[in-house]
Design brief:
Distance between the termini: 38 Å
Number of helices: 3
Number of domains: 2
Shape: extended
Number of strands: 2
Helix content: 40-55%
Radius of gyration: 16 Å
Length: 86
């Protein structure tokens, strides 16, 4: 079995559903590789979040409501993961 089959990469079609967990962290788990589920928009939000955390600025006037919502969710998860490490 090839690595992408073991990881359950979502881009493999057709795909047999094994039900086997291939990734788990912080109370979340999936039977499909999460890297194949990342879209261009979600990658952009991750980059925006990193820039915001690094500089403290995100050009608030240009942010859409979806951008603000994404930053809030990412910040909540960031804080949760920091608390879990302690």
């Amino acid at each position: 079995m090839r690595l992408e089959e073991r990881r359950g990469c979502g881009w493999l079609k057709p795909r047999k559903e094994s039900g086997r967990i291939v990734w788990a962290r912080g109370g979340a788990a999936t039977a499909e590789c999460p890297r194949s589920a990342i879209t261009a928009q979600s990658a952009a939000w991750l980059e925006l979040f990193a820039a915001w955390k690094w500089t403290g600025l995100a050009g608030e006037a240009e942010l859409t409501a979806r951008d603000v919502d994404a930053l809030a969710i990412l910040n909540r998860e960031w804080e949760r993961s920091r608390n879990d490490e302690r």
